[in-house]
Design goal:
Strand content: 15-25%
Structural class: alpha/beta
CATH topology: Rossmann fold
Number of helices: 6
Shape: globular
Order of helices and strands: EHEHHEHEHHE
Helix content: 40-55%
CATH architecture: 3-Layer(aba) Sandwich
Number of domains: 1
Strand order of the largest sheet: 3-2-1-4-5
Number of strands: 5
Length: 149
């Protein structure tokens, strides 16, 4: 089986940096291209209606801009690291539920592998409170998925 395209799901968090290194190493080793995807999750916006009755629109606009800037910084940082290796990468920024957007990207384009990071959850409370994005993607992912801890 030949791998030509790898989808890297990145959020700029510390646990994702290891996944980024794996994606770069694999793609350099086999000559595959990498697309870095960051999904801006609007989950926090649900609470602006309840918390900020006054200046709600300004708060939501600020939150949108902040989340967008975070996503742009995450994919730009990865693109800069990839450029150091000489590997050209594509970057995508989507807006919505991360699981749905990752799966939609897989449906819309033909990738051979997905690479994503995962937090190490130490206690039962962390496991209970975590929404486990990697597990949700794994259950529906039609191609190989590498989860890096």
């Amino acid at each position: 089986m030949e791998m030509k395209k790898i989808l890297l799901c990145t959020d700029g968090e510390e646990q994702t940096k290891k996944a980024e290194e794996y994606a770069l190493t694999i793609s350099l080793g086999i000559g595959a291209s990498v697309t870095a995807l960051h999904v801006v999750d609007p989950f926090l916006k649900k609470f602006t209606n309840e918390i900020y009755a006054v200046n709600r629109d300004e708060c939501r606009e600020h939150l949108d801009k902040s989340l967008q800037a975070e996503g742009e910084a995450a994919v730009a940082a990865f693109a800069a690291r990839a450029a150091e290796t000489g590997l050209p990468v594509s970057v995508l920024l989507r807006y919505g539920d991360p699981t749905e957007e990752i799966l939609k990207e897989l449906d819309d384009n033909s990738y051979d592998m997905v690479v994503m990071g995962s937090k190490v959850l130490k206690g039962w409370k962390e496991r209970f409170e975590s929404f486990k994005l990697s597990e949700k993607v794994f259950r529906k992912c039609p191609i190989p998925l590498l989860v890096v801890r």
